[in-house]
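Table S2 (text version). Query chain:
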Amino acid sequence: MGSTWDRLLTVMGKNGYLGGDTKLLGICHDDPEVTPPAKIRYDASVTVGDDFVPSGDIQAQTVAGGDYAMTTHAGPYSDLGRTYAELMGQWVPRSGRELRDIPCFEVYLNDPQSTAPEDLLTDIYAPLQQQNGARR
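Corresponding structure-token output:
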């Protein structure tokens, strides 16, 4: 994933899409606990405004709205699986909520280039089904 992030950030930086309130997101299509590493799908993403024009293999997508369970993972990316397991295996079942069939996503709160792995912070968002009787 590192080379994908490097390429994305280089292109987006050259085109003036980084800075300000830009957030870095990872959209996780597969569970690494059940999907072989060579088949894992992951989208390295940055938030952009309405003026963004997709080009080449850098495309636009919209993160679905609705309810999400969110937790913050503190520590190296290699330990994200532990936090996912707690969120999905403990919190979601106890909450009485069910997951929606769309990808989870991660928001990276600090820069791994200038932050020690043990100090990294990542918000994990798990999409939840709408509760019965809830208004939108």
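Notes on Table S2: The chain has two helices and five strands. Strands lie at 24-28, 42-46, 68-74, 104-108, 121-127.
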